[in-house]
Amino acid sequence: MTTQSVQSAVGAPDLNPMLPQTFRVRKVINDTYDTFTLELTPSHGGAEVSFRPGQFNMLYLYGVGEVPISISGDPSRGNVLVHTTRAVGTVTKVMSKLKVGDLIGVRGPYGTAWPVEEAVGNDVVIIAGGIGLAPLRPALYHILSHRTKYGKVVLLYGTRTPSDILYRKDLEQLRSRFDLEVHVTVDRAMGTWRGNVGVVTNLIPKAPFDPTNTVAMVCGPEIMMRFTVLGLQKRGVALDSIYLSLERNMKCAVGFCGHCQFGPLFVCKDGPVFRYGQVREFLNKREI
Amino acid sequence: MKTDKVQSSSEGSFTSNGAPRVFTVEHLNTLIRNLRDQGYAVIGPVVQDAAIVYDEISSSEDLPIGWIDTQSNASYRLTKRAAKTLFNFTVGPQSWKKYLHKPSVRILEAEKNGNEFAVNDAQPPAKKQAFLGVRACELHAIAIQDRVLLGGPYVDPIYAELRTNTLIVAVNCEKAGGTCFCASMGTGPRAEHGYDLALTEIRESDHHYFLIETGSALGATVLAGLPAEVASESDIQAANRVIATATHQMGRKVDMSEMKEILYRNTENPRWQDIASRCMSCANCTLVCPTCFCTTIEDTTDLRGTRAERWRKWDSCFTMEFSYIHGGSIRTSPGTRYRQWLTHKFGSWGDQFGSAGCVGCGRCITWCPVGIDVTEELKAIRDSELVEAGSIKSKE
Amino acid sequence: METLERYVAEHPFFAGMSEKHIQLIVGCASNVKYDAGQQIDRAGMEANTFFLVRQGRVAVEIVNPTSGPITIQTVGDGDVLGWSWLFPPYIHHFDSKALDLTRAIALDGKCLRQKCDADHELGYELFKRFAQIMEQRIASTRLQLMDLYK
Amino acid sequence: MRSVAKPKLAVWKFASCDGCQLSLLDCEDELLQIVGAIDIANFVEASRNVMKGPYDVSLVEGSITTPHDAERIHKVRRQSKLLITIGACATAGGIQALRNYTDVKQYASYVYSNPEFLETLNKSTPIADHVFVDFELRGCPISKAQLVETVSAFLNGRKPVTPPYSVCMECKRRGTVCVMVAHGTPCMGPVTQAGCGAICPSYHRGCYGCFGPKETPNTGALADQWKAMGITNDGIVRSFRGFNAYADAFRKESEAHEE
Q1: In chain A, whose CA is at the least distance from the CA of C70?
Q2: Domain C2-146 is classified in which CATH homologous superfamily?
Q3: What is the residue extent of each domain of chain C?
Q4: What ipTM was reported for this prediction?
Q5: Most buried by CB count within 10 Å: which residue of A18, B185, C2, C11?
Q6: Which residue has the higher pLDDT, A57 or C68?
Q7: Contacts of B278 in chain D (CB under 8 A)
Q8: CA nearest neighbour of A7 among A271, A276, A185, A287
Q9: Residue C134's pLDDT band (cuts 50, 70, 90)
Q10: Domain D8-155 homologous superfamily, CATH
């Protein structure tokens, strides 16, 4: 059943896939000291933007370059594209300086989606590390807006320090919901933090889900994901019910440039969301 | 999109598109002239910088008349003979991807005006081009690049435009180069499909002429304008003998049985480290390879910042930047970069595109400045399993 | 006493422990409760107790004179707190403090050590469980040290 | 359109032939644009008009060869927001780093009648051995295109495109036939960083290594191949001891073949 979710997405193949469309920055949110969210709308009006949770866009900064950034908005809000980005490279640093009204180039959406349909009728555990929460947020939005279709829903989220927590207000609101378990942990904390301290995998053993009937969606640094899979495995979650989102260098996002190869897979078109079984053979090997 | 041309002519052989014909050496020039008259830039082999490369030609006089090549690991030499042969050589340092999947193309230009900017692809329309002298391995290479750049959910419009405007005149090999191994890859030396016309140069008892096969309707139209006679059975036999010579000369081979599985099993084979001690990660193998399709993007701006461009350039999995993500490169050691390349060519390519990514042209062996031989490396990795399994006993 | 025995037997840490051994352990156990903010242990003090947390949350801290306490880890429902009582010189390495109202079973280390010396089978069962906890903690610590999200 | 204050650029010279500064002057077509985009605040080679520091960008040419320069470079660093070294002298010690393999006093005695007045260091060293360098532009001389690209990139807030891969990449993209394989000419291309546009091989000459070692250079493999081609140890040493003689990878390889 689960194979359905990782079919490749076909955006609009008749358009020149290398040519971005211009979008306008509608809103800028500074999430943390190095992370920001942009809300974008098509600069010339036009069609609704539609995407599936887990997909990404190529964002082009005039004269600077292009980067793959996952979509982190609500898939049911068709009039706006939301991207949460960490300012770590040349392009993203320039992107962090964009203001409301500025233009940005967008190509996409590309790639595979989280298995939100396959997970219907199951418990869902979403495990995110750091900026990895961004690509998982659309899946969470989708699940919460179809809440009755799912069993227990758990969000486990780990970051570096309390000041690195993304979407803090959203998380606080979600926490008060009775139909969702949210557990946040940080690697290190000082001062007033009264929450959990420790790696996100520490949260797995006690999280309230039925491992025999759970779909896990995981995104974060590769090491974190490897240990998360171990933790889920210990808990008894079937390996084929675990999904990961991978990151590799990308220039084109449509399978032409070759950079994102991961063994036989192209992360851009076969991923970024993979069933664990697809990537298992290569995930623990070095320099694949 | 007329890219299905390649597929439609895939059954092209001696009989499927009419009987083979023959014409004289002089009529080759008529063919070139006719093509030029029809608006094609005719591109064929020429001698340049002591090698046979591809460039525009205006007559058969531009061809490497009398030149033959001698190739081995890291060595390529040309010599001129008295015999006025036109195609008595094999593939050189360049491949046709130079004209289909170009080394450098501008994929986008953007103009800035205040805070606004507009982008356009600004691709000039492709001109018609006719390739003369495409070898069987190269036909396969073009078919492979077709699958990569045209066969997926997305189509590379730049490649598609060039490809659609390309007419292919193949030439069957009459000899095997020192580094060729197409026979074992099932990609030659006979041109079987993917061409519009295919020539075999025949030199027997003072008789110097071409046998011509037609591989497409377009080829038939072009041929119709030429004074070519229907080939006799003995002409066909003569052509067969020419190609058989090439097959028999071929000194190298790759055993492709279970190759993918072997490579996947051997990601940690010590041979990769051994190769790394010899490999300079200079990227020559990937850039001479007619199927390697990887590209990088370079963004440029003018000093005022009012104009920006994006250029797509040939790239190689041997560079550090190729696998760079935030935090560093994935493949930092040259051994794993070589492993990536070889495993892709002979293993994962099959998973991705349904065939090997190698056509046995041998360019990577000739043009590796230190002469690393893929056939030897693949054999070493295959044999290392036999040693482990005890099938190869040590000589003592 | 009966409820105490039930708490011990039901705590995940002692899952699979024989009834005989549970009885021996209960002999060293007592119920404790800490209010939010209440200090449990201090680094440098003698370590004679470990806790099976039943409910609540405890921060394990180390104090940096200039920047105050740094939380290394938090433990909660079903977790175990403290193993300094296992090894000489039986001194606490870290501070621990209840973050929320915390109910736990305190186990007297001296008492347990004596019982383990007398009954090596009990000692083996107990050490097996602590070894697993230590393995998990060291793995987590390594991941924390890697600063994965940098 | 550009905002009020233009970035201030300074050009500094240390031990060098001035060739890299000439590359800047040689940007005839681009110079007007450059002047439009930045204030050239200190560039003795071009103008006597000197504006005071601090400077937004300093281009530093030349290597450190005297005690005085070893001091002066710190002053330059203090006045510069961004310090970019240009050319083989500044990035690797230059051709004058050949002195690092011999006795500089002896050299001086051949050239000067009163070498005792000469105050010089034993070694010619790159700028990065003395102060923090923000960006290095390789080459002997630097490529005009790369210089314009670097200035343009910094003005536009992007990363300059100066790839650290081999010269072979440039040869292959421009369609140059490999001189090593087709002519048997020893060539430094496979271990040398791209950037020049692969000029020498296009004139049927082997690459001289002007842009210094590429990323992960396997100089040993190249030297082995040269030996197989009949090049002597002396020839190998001389090839690696060119304009980038003191760049780490080239230095080590040359030392390995010293007899």
Answers
A1: A190
A2: Jelly Rolls (2.60.120.10)
A3: 2-146
A4: 0.91
A5: A18
A6: A57
A7: 218, 221, 224
A8: A271
A9: very high
A10: NADH:ubiquinone oxidoreductase-like, 20kDa subunit (3.40.50.700)
